[in-house]
């Protein structure tokens, strides 16, 4: 039994505009299957995608607070020229430079048009085969704890773990990485960005939710009402959802 990440949920006042931004940023397409804007690889809406983890932009009534998101995307580049070109192109699309205390680093920290932080990485060999999204990065207090929970939840391979950093990737070695960084501070506002998970074919959603609770997940009520998905938090309070197979 295991779950698979199928998309990153990103909340926005203007889901269509933010979806267009991320489609341009990732070189993908924006689709409007309903009230949300789904961003995924070209070639038509394929969901769940066998490799990529898409971005589903969901309209919400409230703007992002000034508090830094504790979940963000890292974008991959293939050369120094590619990194510089991508940063310039994203700024032309409405991204802004932002200071999250990173100091002098080889990557560039930006925010999308509604303030969601993300990084454009310098070229790194480890991300050569991830596609445009190198990693989903989660700020946390205890990377070892998070690696244990998420490794069991997803049945992903633990690539690296220390007191400061943990790295997971799918057992098939495809798609983006899931990374946990030890970061000062604690979660104080609801996550603006989170993962949606889907049971693997043949697995039972209710059984998967019970398994996650046994691993340390907690039920979450965000006013969702009677919906086919289940809202939970991981052991450090980061929200995520388990979707019902359709």
Helix content bin: 10-25%
Terminal Cα span:
18 Å
Into which percentage range does the β-strand content fall? 25-35%
Question: SS-based structural class?
Answer: alpha+beta
The overall pLDDT average reads 96
Question: Biggest sheet, strands in spatial order?
Answer: 2-3-4-1-13-16-15-14
Series of secondary-structure elements, N-terminal to C-terminal: EHEEEEHEEEEHEEEEHEEE
The largest pleated sheet is described as:
8 strands, mixed
Low-confidence stretches: none
Number of strands: 16
Q: Can you count the helices?
A: 4
Using only CA atoms, what is the Rg? 17 Å
Shape summary = globular
Can you offer a commentary on this structure?
The protein has 246 residues and is of the alpha+beta class. It has four helices and 16 strands. It has helices at 15-26, 80-92, 143-154, 205-215, and strands at residues 3-12, 29-31, 37-40, 54-59, 71-75, 96-97, 108-111, 117-120, 133-140, 157-161, 165-169, 177-182, 193-199, 218-219, 230-233, 239-242. An eight-stranded mixed β-sheet has the order 2-3-4-1-13-16-15-14, covered by helices on one side. Strand 10 and strand 11 (165-169) form a beta hairpin. The longest helix has 13 residues, at 80-92. It is globular, with a radius of gyration of 17 Å. The two termini are 18 Å apart. The relative contact order is 0.17. The model has no long low-confidence stretch (mean pLDDT 96).
Properties at a glance:
single chain; 246 residues; alpha+beta; 8-stranded mixed beta sheet; 16 strands; globular
Produce a short descriptive summary.
This protein has 246 residues and is of the alpha+beta class. 20% of the residues lie in helices and 32% in strands.
């Amino acid at each position: 039994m295991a779950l698979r990440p199928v998309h990153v949920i990103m909340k926005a006042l203007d889901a269509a505009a933010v979806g267009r931004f991320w489609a341009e940023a990732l070189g993908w397409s924006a689709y409007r299957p309903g009230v949300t804007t789904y961003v995924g690889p070209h070639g038509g809406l394929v969901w769940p995608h066998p490799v990529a983890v898409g971005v589903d932009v969901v309209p919400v009534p409230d703007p992002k607070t000034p508090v830094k998101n504790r979940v963000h995307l890292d974008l991959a580049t293939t050369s120094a020229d590619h990194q510089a070109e991508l940063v310039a192109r994203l700024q032309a699309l409405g991204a802004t430079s932002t200071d999250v205390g990173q100091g002098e680093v080889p990557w560039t920290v930006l925010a999308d048009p509604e303030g969601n932080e993300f990084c454009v990485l310098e070229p790194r060999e480890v991300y050569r085969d991830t596609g445009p999204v190198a990693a989903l990065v989660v700020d946390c207090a205890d990377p070892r704890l998070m690696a244990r929970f998420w490794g069991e939840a997803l049945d992903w391979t633990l690539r690296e773990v220390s007191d400061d950093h943990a790295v997971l990737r799918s057992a098939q070695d495809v798609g983006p990485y899931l990374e946990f960084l030890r970061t000062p501070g604690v979660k104080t506002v609801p996550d603006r960005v989170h993962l949606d998970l889907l049971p693997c074919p043949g697995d039972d959603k209710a059984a998967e939710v019970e398994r996650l609770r046994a691993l340390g997940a907690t039920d979450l009520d965000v006013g969702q009402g009677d919906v086919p998905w289940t809202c939970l938090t991981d052991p450090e309070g980061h929200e995520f959802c388990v979707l019902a197979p359709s």
